[in-house]
Structures are given as C-alpha cells and as structure tokens.
Inverse folding.
C-alpha cells in the first residue's frame, strides 16, 4: 500500500521542526532536538521512584489506571536507539497502555549510550523487571503477572530482558510486546535498502545508533544485543510483534517473529501497512497508531488473564 496520507502529514510536521540530520549531531545535541507536542491521557496514579540498578539508582515511572488492585504489570522500555529519549518522551504511550490494558506500567529510565555502552541498558531493564517481581505490591502491582514491552530499541531491550530472564531462571515473564523491535546488528535486509531514507528512520540513523551503543562490532553478535542471533529461542514467553511497512527495521522484526514461532513460542505478528517507524508513538495523530495501541492492550489483557 502507498504511504498513508496521515503519515505524509506527520512527516511534513516533523520536517517543519527544522532539526538537522541526526548523524550530523553529537548525542548531547541530538537529545535537545525539538519534539512535536503531545498531551497524554489522564490516569489514576503516577509516581516517580528510584530503585536499585546495576549502575546505581535507576529511575522508573509508575502508571496505574483506576482498577481493582493488585494489577498486572507491563515493564516498558522507551525507544530512541539506546541514545535518545527518556521517561517524558514516552509518557503518553505509557498512559495509553495503562488505560487500555488495565494494567500498571513501569517505565524504565535506563542508562543511555554512548556514556553507557552495551549491555548497560539491557541490564537496567532486566533489573527493573526483577524489582517489579519482588516489589510490585509496593505500588499495587501483581509480581506474578509481568509483561515486558518496548518500541524500537526498547523493543530490543524487552526481547533481551525475556532472554535474560529465561537464561537466568527468573523473574517469570508472561508476555512480550515488541513494537518494531531492533533485533539484529546488520543493515542488509530488503526493507533496509528500500526504506533507507525518506521515511523518518533512516539506514544512516541506525548505523549512528549502533555505533554509539556498541563498544566494538563483536558485541553486535551477542544475542543480548542482537536477539535474532540467539541460537535457541525456545522457552520464551508468548509475543506480539508489531512492524510498519515503511520501516527499515520491518524485516528483522518479522524475522524475529518467525524465529520465535519456529521455536514453539506462541507469537502473533502484525504489519501495519502504510505506516512508518514510530507510528505507535504517534497514536494521537495516526488512526493506525490508535489501532495498534488497542490491539497491543487486548493481547496484554488476554495474556494477563492466563498468567
């Protein structure tokens, strides 16, 4: 399908911000890039906390809708190529998911690269998930019903947290929500070639992100950086993988969904035609983004009910 008219308008809005190319900036400069304004949905309860992390105190933000307690919990990792964004950038996403999935959401302010290279971010998200399993009752959550989720690099970190939890024996995770996840340190898929530039996320952007995240190229071969390279994906929690048609990451996300399914993991995959990378975070502007939030929430609720 052709690029959706709503996406064309969004791309024009983004261009009007006048931000220089990402690859011409330092990470510090890129973190100051202007963002399109967005207002998040109201939720019943929001709290910022500091929890123990592998590199020192770790900031998290807890969202809770008005529901009977205790609530199942989604541990959410924001996107931004491991280099950009924070709790505020994905505040609206977490609010929408908390309301729609009727769960608590714990958003993780993991350490960013290049100040903190691989595997710092992954270890932070794993540590937050472990903390939720132990301390969920302190915020009205149920530590026996935990899902992990994230978009882009956050989808990568969610997938890696599921791998870590399986490999380390705990905590138990009941579901993975992987929104256009980064799954492989490679730039050679058809979607990378076809959508290398002109659709928000570019091939050059991805090379810039990976360069800042990895200490050396050998780290990119590790399954905790590139989960698609894991030899064994069996024993992982069920997953919902969302991809976008006009996204360089489309093919590696879909390849990971296939690998999960082949390994016996209950996996659902949905490609949103006419959409670009980041459409999930622009649900307030894109009807397909709203639909993706609804479907993700529906699958989370179903998984929590089974846990």
């Amino acid at each position: 399908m052709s690029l959706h008219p709503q996406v064309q308008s969004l791309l024009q809005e983004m261009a009007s911000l006048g931000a220089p190319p990402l690859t011409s900036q330092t990470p510090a400069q890129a973190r100051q890039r202007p963002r399109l304004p967005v207002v998040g949905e109201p939720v019943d309860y929001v709290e910022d906390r500091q929890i123990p992390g592998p590199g020192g105190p770790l900031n998290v933000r807890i969202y809770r809708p008005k529901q009977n307690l205790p609530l199942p919990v989604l541990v959410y990792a924001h996107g931004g190529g491991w280099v950009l964004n924070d709790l505020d950038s994905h505040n609206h996403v977490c609010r929408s998911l908390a309301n729609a999935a009727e769960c608590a959401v714990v958003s993780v302010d993991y350490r960013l690269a290049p100040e903190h290279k691989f595997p710092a971010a992954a270890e932070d998200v794993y540590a937050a998930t472990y903390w939720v399993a132990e301390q969920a009752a302190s915020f009205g959550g149920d530590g026996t019903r935990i899902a992990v989720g994230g978009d882009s690099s956050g989808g990568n970190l969610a997938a890696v947290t599921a791998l870590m939890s399986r490999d380390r024996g705990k905590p138990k995770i009941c579901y993975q929500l992987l929104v256009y996840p980064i799954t492989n340190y490679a730039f050679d898929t058809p979607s990378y070639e076809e959508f290398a530039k002109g659709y928000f996320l570019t091939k050059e952007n991805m090379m810039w992100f990976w360069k800042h995240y990895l200490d050396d190229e050998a780290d990119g071969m590790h399954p905790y950086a590139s989960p698609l390279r894991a030899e064994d994906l069996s024993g992982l929690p069920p997953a919902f993988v969302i991809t976008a048609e006009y996204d360089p990451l489309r093919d590696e996300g879909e390849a990971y969904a296939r690998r999960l399914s082949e390994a016996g993991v209950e996996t659902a995959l949905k490609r949103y035609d006419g959409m670009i990378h980041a459409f999930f975070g622009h649900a307030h502007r894109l009807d397909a983004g709203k639909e993706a939030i609804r479907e993700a929430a529906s699958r989370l609720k179903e998984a929590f009910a089974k846990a």
About this structure: The chain is about 35% helix and 20% strand. The chain has one domain: 5-16+43-306. The first helix runs from residue 5 to 16. The two ends are 37 Å apart (CA to CA).
